[in-house]
Amino acid sequence: MASCDGCQLTLLDCEDELLALGEAVDIVHFPEASSALRPQGRFDLTLVEGSISTPEQLEEIRHIRAVSHALVVIGACATSGGVQALRNFADHEQFMRVVYATPSYVSSLADSTPISAHVPVDFELRGCPIDKAQLLEVITASVVGRKPGIPNEAVCMECKRRGVVCVMVARGQTCLGPVTHAGCGALCPAYDRGCYGCFGPRESANTGSLATWELGRGRSKADMVRAFRLITGAAPAFEHESKRHEP
């Protein structure tokens, strides 16, 4: 759907595991990897990247759901609308007029939405891009018929395991790590930067408490809107928190 294809490329990055994976599954439609496409039929497992941003994509995802036994959506775009969902908080028609010389030629929905807003999904794999170990875990779980073992924990846990000094406490930086789903390996904090929330909110994320703490440190409400309205800003928990601080 609407995406940069980075999450699909994550599968190709699984170099050492691809041969074993190829023995376990028959990949029938993967344009990033092969021109031999067989998109017709019914499928045991379908991985879909990208948000629903055009009327054509809305029709396509409904068809994909109808022919898929299991539908797994991968990446921030597919699970929360992605960075393109920033248009959800603005004037879509104005964006069209500014960007395109002839807006009437462009078919686009007013909002960029996650796939789960339109069809039932069996699993959401977060990230921008997704983590290849988590992707392999989801595929393996599907092959053997069990639930994927993706823990519901915050990025803070990954910081602890890596021995990364807390950038909130030691550096005074704004960081979404306490409310963001783990999976990136604490990449940004490891390079002395606050978490941007690429993996979206973890379950039961206490965004209100984090925002209150940040405001108490002198951050403005506009800072909070920017912090929660980035790559996964349309995820319900982050969207709700950002709207709480709008002027």
Automatic annotation (TrEMBL):
SUPFAM superfamilies: HydA/Nqo6-like. InterPro entries: Hydrogenase_assoc-protein, NADH_UbQ_OxRdtase-like_20kDa, NiFe_Hase_small_N_sf. GO terms for molecular function: DNA binding; hydrogen dehydrogenase activity; iron-sulfur cluster binding. Keywords: Homeobox, Oxidoreductase. It is an enzyme of class 1 (oxidoreductase). Its EC number is 1.12.1.2. Residues 4-141 form the NADH:ubiquinone oxidoreductase-like 20kDa subunit domain. PANTHER family: COENZYME F420-REDUCING HYDROGENASE, GAMMA SUBUNIT, CYTOSOLIC NIFE-HYDROGENASE, DELTA SUBUNIT. This is NAD-reducing hydrogenase HoxS subunit delta. It comes from Enhygromyxa salina. The lineage of its organism: Bacteria, Pseudomonadati, Myxococcota, Polyangia, Nannocystales.
